[in-house]
Amino acid sequence: MASASERSYTRRDTVLFCVCLGLSLVGLFAPAALGLSVAAALRQSVLAPLVWLQVRAEEGKTSRVRLRAITAERDSASYLAQGLPSLLAENERLRQLLGLSHRLSSPYVAAEVLHQPQATDGRTLLLSAGSRDGVAAFDPVVAPEGLIGVVLSAAPRTSIVMTWAHPEFRVSAFTVSGNAAGVVAPSPSGAGEGALEFRGVPYRDSVSVGTLVLSSGLGGVYPKGIPVGTVTGIVSEQAGWERVYRLLPAANPGSAAHVLVLTSPNGDLARAFPSDSALAAQRRDSLERIRVADSVAQAAREARAQRAESLAATRRDTTRARPRPPLRPDSAAARRPAAPAPATVPGAGAPPPTAGAPPAAPATGAPPAASGTGVSPAAPATSAPPPKAPPAGPPSKAPAVGSPLQPAAGAPTQKDTAR
Amino acid sequence: MIPARANRLQLAAVLALLVVLHFYVRPRLWGPRISPDFLFVGLMLFAMRSGPGASAVAGFLVGITADALTPAKFGAGALAHTVVGYLASWARAMFFADNALVNAGFIAVGLWMRDLLVLAASGGGDRSFLAELALYSPLQALTSALFALIVLLAFREWFSIRLDA
């Protein structure tokens, strides 16, 4: 039989259970709004610390997941960034090739270069286009930068290209300004591997460094106007006969990934290759011409000023000097070609220019072509006034500068003085 | 040992630890539907050491907490936890010995019964009701029982439970 304490203990438990059960049933069957409001009140008061704790836990879990995702994204970005430069380079090359294909007027076939691991890969290339695509032997192969080579043989699906690095490669070429022509061939082994030589250039045709060399179209294989290379220096020269120039190739077959095969080459393709080197060469040529023109004008000004000074000195001495018969400078020069030059130099001490001396080129820097202006170099030497009153001007180069480049400015003055 | 001689501070410390685990660690664990219910484990441990009335009150509080945090049917959790807490304390005093494995199984059965009562009181009777009782509730009961076993082994001195299973 249970004791009184055990009975009260059991009764109390039962009461507590019934109370809790009743409250639970009240909450269960109470209106939903009441239940929600009670739940909200509990969350905002008693359970607030527990909710805060759970929020922190969720944030930590979210941060961990986010950190994992960011790490994965960073790894992916790093992986992609490793291949980005090559992708950019390929994209740039394809863009250039696309621009070239738009500028080409002759039909072409685009092909991929299938590089091989052999050491001779740069001399011959394997292309992914063949006779089924229209490629035939002796079709020129170009890259956006310039000439690559010529098709050596064409299979149905592939073709072999002989590049400019091949020892048997030859192409007729001329400079972008058109003043020199020759044959471009690869440099022999040991004498500049990977370079080209511009051979057979006449000795009289000097080509400056930086000049762009294009295919001339002679021979019927390569059309005219394809950039071949840029002059970087002189390899050798045979005095009075020819010069051989070294060329920096315009296109590199070893790095070419996509090329164009010109299936029916014709016409001038110079406009299809407005490369930077061509523009730079043209710009250099223009600057050179401007510099020559400026030097000529400067020399003319100096000669004119010096002539004016000598004229003033002559006028001062006119009263004491015995009048001479009027004499034309040209006629004087014709009659006395070997006149004593020192007597014509206003400023003593300068070497006298003779009739056979080179004209203004040494002083002005003008090219030899400037001497072919029809101006006689001996005229000033004979038409200069007598050295009775040498002026204090710079006399050393005055005759050399002014004599060949001074047109007829001095002659009338001289005649006026004589009169 | 009788409950009156138990160290109430030690029991309170373990229960506080379980509360912290429930609100701070459980969100970080794997699937929330099968993660151990630390609050229920604490309720069952309290029911093992307390009388039916106190266990019913503790179950009511735990149920109210669950109802306040779960936007389902207010009162269902309180009802289920009250019943389970009361019955657990009463049944353990009547039938179960101080055995760790038996206590772990006891907790597993109690959790499954809690889920049954909650779902029944909430009015669920569709396929999700059966899937919850047949799949997720047993899995959660299993994980909770395993965790309870660990707690019993770790704090066996505090709970004065014989481990002669």
Task: Give a nutshell description of this structure.
Chain A has 10 helices and 12 strands.
Write the layout of secondary structure elements.
The complex is a heterodimer of chains A (419) and B (165).
Chain A: H1 4-29, H2 32-44, H3 48-82, H4 84-103, E1 108-112, E2 124-127, E3 140-143, E4 146-154, E5 159-163, E6 171-175, E7 181-186, E8 196-202, E9 212-215, E10 227-238, E11 242-249, E12 258-262, H5 276-316, H6 329-335, H7 361-364, H8 379-383, H9 398-405, H10 410-418
Antiparallel strand pairs in A: 1-12, 2-5, 3-4, 3-12, 4-5, 6-7, 6-9, 7-8, 8-11, 9-10, 10-11
Chain B: H1 8-25, H2 38-49, H3 52-69, H4 76-94, H5 100-122, H6 127-154, H7 156-159
Helix pairs in contact in B: 1-2, 2-3, 2-4, 2-6, 3-4, 4-5, 5-6
Please characterize this protein's 3D structure.
Chain A has 419 residues and is an alpha+beta fold. Chain A has 3 domains: 1-30; 101-274, Thrombin, subunit H; 284-418, no CATH class. Chain A has 10 helices and 12 strands. A 6-stranded antiparallel sheet of chain A has the order 1-12-3-4-5-2. In chain A, strands 6-7-8-11-10-9 form a 6-stranded antiparallel beta barrel. In chain A, a hairpin with a 5-residue loop joins strand 6 and strand 7. In chain A, helix 5 (276-316) crosses helix 9 and helix 5 packs parallel to helix 10. With 165 residues, chain B is mainly α. Helices cover 74% and strands 0% of the residues of chain B. Chain B has 7 helices and no strands. Classes of the chains: A alpha+beta (419), B mainly alpha (165). Chains A and B meet through helix 1, helix 2 and helix 3 of A and helix 1, helix 3 and helix 4 of B.
Label the structural class of chain A: alpha+beta
Mean pLDDT of chain A: 73
Biggest sheet of chain A, open or closed, and with what strands and sense?
6 strands, antiparallel
- Biggest β-sheet: strands ordered side by side in the sheet of chain A: 1-12-3-4-5-2
- Helical percent range of chain A? 40-55%
Report the principal-axis shape of chain B.
Answer: globular
- The span between the termini of chain A is 168 Å
CATH topology of chain B: Arp2/3 complex 21 kDa subunit ARPC3
Which H/E pattern describes the elements of chain B? HHHHHHH
| CATH-derived architecture of chain B | Orthogonal Bundle
The CATH superfamily of the largest domain in chain A bears the name Rod shape-determining protein MreC, domain 2
Taken as a percent bin, the fraction of beta residues of chain A is 15-25%
Secondary-structure class of chain B:
mainly alpha
Mean pLDDT of chain B: 82
Distance between the termini of chain B: 18 Å
